[in-house]
Specification:
This protein has 344 residues and is of the alpha/beta class. It has a single domain, classed as D-Maltodextrin-Binding Protein, domain 2 (3-Layer(aba) Sandwich), CATH 3.40.190. It contains 14 helices and ten strands. Strands 1, 2, 3, 4, 5, 6, 7, 8, 9 and 10 form a ten-stranded mixed sheet that branches. Strand 1, helix 2 and strand 2 form a beta-alpha-beta unit. Helix 4 packs across helix 14, helix 5 packs antiparallel against helix 14 and helix 7 runs antiparallel to helix 13. The radius of gyration is 23 Å and the shape is globular. It binds ligand 6CS. The site of ligand 6CS has 11 residues, from strand 7.
C-alpha cells in the first residue's frame, strides 16, 4: 500500500514538472526587432513580412518591423544590430563593404549574370553564400540568414551615355561605405559621390549629382524616373540584399527557436526569390506606362566592351585586398559557372 502511495506521489510530481515545463515553453513569448533598409512593400519588405508571418504563425513570438528611416540610415541599423539593440537586420549588400569587406563581392562590376534563372540557381545553391560567408559574418557579431537579389542595376542620368568618355566628370551617386562602388565608377570614367539614400533625392533635385544606380523596381517606386531623364542598362551589376541576426542573441536561442528562425529565413528566401524574377519587369512596365518621356537605353555588347575591360581592374583590386576576398571571388566564379550550366 505504502509502495502504491509513493508511486502515486511520484506520478503527481512528474505530471507537475511536465506541466511547469510545458507552461513555461508556451508562455515564453518574445518581441524581436527587425530593421531594414527599405519599406514594407519593397523587396526587403517582402522578405521581412514573410519572415515575420512565419515566426508569428509558428510560435508565440512576435516581430516588430522598423522600415527604412525609422531608426536612422542603413549604416546605423548595422551598428545597432551588431550591438544587440536589434535582433534582425535586412540590408542592401552595397552598404556592407565598409564593415564586412568581403560583402563587396556582390557589388563587383560584370561578375553577376543578368539572367534571372541563373541568379535564382546561384542564390539557392551558392557555396559562397551557404558555406563561406556565414563564418565571416560570425566574426562581425552577425548570423547570416539569407542573401537575395532585387533586380539588375540600372543607371539613371540627366543625359544619355554610351561610353566611359561620356561619363567623364559626371558625378555619380553610389551607396556609402563600399570602396568597390567608388572604384567601379572611377574605372567607368565618372566621379563617384558616396551618399546615403536619405540625401539622394535632394541631391538629384539640386543637381548636386548627375546620376545614380538602383534596380528598376526601386527607381519606379521612389520616382527616380521623374527626377532624371534617361535609364541605361549597362549589364554591370545586380542589386542584392542580406538578412542577418545579432549573433549573441541567435546563439542564446533554444534549439527550437534556432530551427524556427532558420525555417522562417528559408521560407522568406523562397518567397522573395520567386518575386525577384518578376521585379524588373514590374518596375519597367510601370515606368513605360506612366512616364513615356523617360528614355530607356540598353547598351549594345559593343558599347559594353570598354566598361567590361575597365571592370577587370576593379575585380583584381578586390581580390588583391585580402586572401579571403580572393578565395571568395574564385568560388563565386565557380558558383556562377555552375549556375550557368544548371539553371532551367
Ligand atoms: O540606393 C539606396 O541606397 C537604396 N536602394 C535600394 C534598392 N534599397 C535600399 C537602399 O538604401
Amino acid at each position: 500500500m505504502k509502495h502504491f502511495m509513493n508511486l502515486k506521489k511520484l506520478s503527481a510530481l512528474l505530471t507537475g514538472c511536465l506541466l511547469i515545463a510545458v507552461t513555461s515553453i508556451s508562455v515564453y513569448a518574445a518581441e524581436w526587432k527587425y530593421a531594414m533598409g527599405e519599406g514594407e512593400s519593397d523587396p526587403q519588405g517582402i522578405y521581412a513580412m514573410a519572415f515575420k508571418d512565419f515566426i508569428e504563425e509558428n510560435s508565440r513570438h512576435t516581430i516588430k518591423i522598423y522600415p527604412v528611416g525609422s531608426l536612422g540610415e542603413e549604416a546605423d541599423m548595422l551598428e545597432q544590430t551588431k550591438a544587440g539593440i536589434l535582433q534582425f537586420l535586412g540590408q542592401s549588400t552595397g552598404y556592407m563593404g565598409g564593415t564586412i569587406p568581403e560583402m563587396d563581392l556582390f557589388t563587383l562590376p560584370y561578375v553577376m549574370p543578368t539572367d534571372t534563372k541563373q541568379l535564382d540557381y546561384f542564390f539557392k545553391n551558392s557555396k559562397v553564400i551557404n558555406e563561406m560567408l556565414p563564418p565571416i559574418f560570425n566574426q562581425h557579431g552577425l548570423e547570416l540568414l539569407s542573401i537575395f537579389p532585387e533586380g539588375e542595376m540600372a543607371v539613371t542620368t540627366f543625359e544619355p551615355f554610351h561610353s566611359p568618355e561620356d561619363l567623364q566628370g559626371k558625378k555619380m551617386r553610389v551607396m556609402p561605405g563600399s570602396p568597390i562602388l567608388v572604384e567601379t565608377y572611377k574605372a567607368f570614367g565618372a566621379s563617384p559621390v558616396p551618399m546615403t539614400w536619405g540625401d539622394l533625392i535632394g541631391a538629384l533635385k539640386t543637381n548636386m549629382v548627375d546620376g545614380q544606380e538602383n534596380p528598376t523596381v526601386w527607381i519606379e517606386a521612389y520616382d527616380l524616373d521623374n527626377l532624371t531623364k534617361v535609364l541605361t542598362y549597362t549589364g554591370h551589376g545586380h542589386f542584392n540584399a542580406s538578412a542577418s541576426a545579432n549573433k549573441p542573441f541567435f546563439d542564446e536561442l533554444s534549439d527550437r527557436d534556432k530551427k524556427l528562425v532558420r525555417a522562417a529565413a528559408e521560407h522568406a528566401h523562397k518567397v522573395i526569390l520567386s518575386e525577384a524574377q518578376k521585379l524588373d519587369a514590374y518596375g519597367l512596365g510601370r515606368i513605360v506606362r506612366t512616364n513615356p518621356d523617360f528614355q530607356i537605353v540598353t547598351l549594345t555588347q559593343q558599347e559594353r566592351a570598354p566598361f567590361k575591360e575597365a571592370a577587370k581592374e576593379v575585380q583584381a583590386s578586390f581580390a588583391a585586398k585580402s586572401d579571403s576576398n580572393k578565395k571568395l571571388l574564385d568560388q563565386m566564379m565557380a558558383d556562377l559557372k555552375e549556375a550557368e550550366e544548371n539553371a532551367e
